[in-house]
Amino acid sequence: MIKITNKLLPGCLILCLLWLTLSNAAVQAKALVVVSDEWCPYVCDEQDLPGFLVEIVKEIARDNEIKLTFSLMPLARALKLAQKNKVDIVLALTPQHIERYQLQQSQLNFAGLYNDFYVRADNPWRFQSMTHLSATLTGNAILGTINGYQYGAEFSRFLKAQSEHVFAASGNSPLVKQLKMLQMGRLDILLDSRFTVQYQLAKGEKKGIIYAGTQGDFTPLYLGFSSLLSKKLVKIFDSGLITLRQSGRLKKILAKYGLTDWQ
After folding, report:
1. Secondary structure (3-state) at 5
2. What would the pLDDT profile of 46-90 be if each residue is shown by its tens digit?
3. Model pLDDT for residues 171-222, shown as the tens digit of each residue
């Protein structure tokens, strides 16, 4: 049995404190891994305009001396990795995503979306009701969606029932793929948010596509955090968004993408 004398205690305490300090420094030095699929203007694969959500998260991290690394990947893969605690933050998630994959959720919403429909300009179809949409698809129309996305409980049940008439795109840039398919006539109706579709259409690359109606109300989007991250860290991003909004910096970020505050 080894006895620890009073003379040794101060030295032990110093070593323990030093070890804790070094451990904390190592944790703080580790960069948080942030992932998303490309979903402009939320998240873009462009150096000058990386997406307003990317810019918001980077500003908050910079203000709080948090290191980040960003990666683009299909949303379905990002969610599975977050559930396994192999990535730290997934951008632009619905509450359904967060609950299903057992993630932590930001208290504040970081933008949102609508369930908007788009068709080719020569297509007279306009959304009237879910019954009307069901009849249209049963008549051999194809609806384009994106794999891994959540469109609300009602619409999710609808998509499952109409799966043979739905094409869900995947990959890092699924919306661009769907717009091309709609333009070429391989899809009849496209379902996505007006913010993303209008942003792509404003580039002038996809002509002859028009808005055809909206189902439901505004759906808020959140940041999804790995279950292993501390609640203190999650709160930093909530308070950081408040700071950006109050300082006017959020307004400046959104203006670069032709947007106004969603609140």
Report:
1. coil
2. 999 999 999 999 999 999 999 999 999 999 999 999 999 999 999
3. 888 999 999 999 999 999 999 999 899 888 888 767 899 999 999 999 999 9
Q: Please say whether the beta carbons of 40 and 196 come within 8 A.
A: yes
Q: In what order do the strands lie in the sheet with 32-36?
A: 68-72, 32-36, 89-93, 222-225, 104-105
CB 241 within 8 Å of CB 232: no
> In Å, how far are 10, 25, 147, 182, 210 from 117, measured between CA atoms?
69, 49, 17, 11, 9
State the Cα–Cα distance between residues 13 and 254, nearest whole angstrom. Answer: 50
* Cα gap 263→259, rounded to integer Å: 12
What's the rounded Cα separation, in Å, for the pair 83 and 103? 7
Residue position matching structure tokens 């609806």: 143
Distance of CA 44 to the CA centre of its chain: 11
Note the pLDDT of residue 118: 97
Any residues with CB less than 8 A from the CB of 75 and at least 6 apart, and which?
36, 37, 90, 146, 147, 148, 149
The full length of the chain comes to 263
Strands ordered across the beta sheet of 143-146: 166-169, 143-146, 189-192, 112-120, 209-220
Looking at the DSSP bridge assignments, the partners of residue 190 are 118, 144
* Residue 142: closest CA among 209, 188, 177: 188
The pTM score is 0.77
What DSSP assignment string belongs to 145-161?
A: EETT----HHHHHHHHH
Give the list of residues 6+ apart from residue 114 with CB closer than 8 angstroms, or none: 193, 194, 214, 216, 217, 218, 219
Amino acid at the residue 61: A
Give 40's DSSP letter. Answer: T
